[in-house]
Amino acid sequence: MVLMNSMCNKILKPIDGSCCQSAPPLSVLQKLAAAVLLVSVVCFVLLGFSSHRKSRPAPDVESGEEKKHPAAVGQLNPKGPLLAIGKMSLIMLYFYLCDRADIFMKEQKFYTHSAFFIPLIYIFVLGVFYSENSKETKLLNREQTDEWKGWMQLVILIYHISGASAFIPVYMHVRVLVAAYLFQTGYGHFSFFWLKGDFGLYRVCQVLFRLNFLVVVLCLVMDRPYQFYYFVPLVTFWFAVIYATMALWPQILQKQANGSAFWNLALLLKLLGLLLFIGFFAYSQELFEGIFSVWPLSKLFELQGSIHEWWFRWKLDRFAVVNGMLFAFIYLLLQKYQLLSEGKGEPLFSNKISNCLLFVSVVSFMTYSIWASGCKNKSECNEMHPYISVVQILAFILIRNIPGYARSLYSSFFAWFGKISLELFICQYHIWLAADTKGILVLIPGNPTLNIIVSTFIFVCVAHEISQITNDLAQVAIPKESGPLLKRLLGAGVFLVLVLTLSQKD
Q: Which of 57, 60, 141, 154 could form a disulfide with 136 if both were Cys (CB 3.0 to 4.6 A apart)?
């Protein structure tokens, strides 16, 4: 076996074997990234750990909510950005050692029902145990959306590490969770643009930086294409679509709609146009792939020389964002005409309507689960998914929000994870899972339980730290003044072209 490994592994390069394989050679971009990160680490050591200041909580730009900070950007510690980059460099070194160097072992995933459902029960018991009173009682308030993202992300993590994609009913339910993330994207950004009308460049850059900073760094350090971290390209694309839909003429805001009901109809026509646009591309695969196969889009959306993976991911949840936008519009309209009761302890509607909606929601939720449990073929069920996933999403929202007592509580445990859900989703690729998510990272051989405890603790701490680093750097990298912001955008554009050009040569 050793002799065969020594001969075959160098040629076949199997993902689940590292015996007798040399580490892959560094690309030009990896060498440049290593040089920059090395300088950053040296600066970090020279400046010292004591200069680190306490970071402020990151604004949830993904869901369209931002909070003003008491301190202005100009008052930041000048050493702060260097310290943040230095910490990021050390973290990236850990990423590289875990999933590129042949230092730590990897093990295969083997799905069993107990490996998936027992941790699931455990975390939900913890989530219920840490229930607290919510500051707001509005439908889908900030604490509730953080909670929603948190428990969904924990389910997805358990799904990945247990290899539950092999079990189709679980796979279909997790597909709904991904659709729910995109639903929240549509809901949050639509609400922000509709209520505030802020289409400024500063806001756009803040969102794009928050979404893409970690992935761009990982693409350079780990030598992986942008599309490899598929969720970030997906959310970035849909944010651009939401922005274009709301910002382009006619620019319709709530202020205008308050003056005339005609503008409400005009906005619905806009959303209908977006829906038709999506439908047109969904049934024109050749046109879709032709557009995204043109440089530089091809370098961003191709995976292993093909655009097929991007097409599959885009098509699978193509209506989720529009559903979120439409739901936000209807909710804000009902709120405007005071048709909802959002006081503490009050049901969302009258008792009769609330009970009817709750009954329909529970039946709809269970019907979807029964249908998903009967799925035998992934491709066939995936064809139905874009049309029916919204049923379970809306059912969950109504079940969670119609009873006043349920709306008045939230789980701080899940909400904490929800605030770093993006970082958790991306970091799992290399420092919790391994071999680009195909296996499990082994830090402590021979003791699976201790290994998963240690690797999970490090993984969560790293994700939390990266969230804070991203927030710190966003405040410095994205100035509010238009002049400096345009200059930095020009620099970012040059950097992107340079990276894409060098990656072509590799």
A: 141
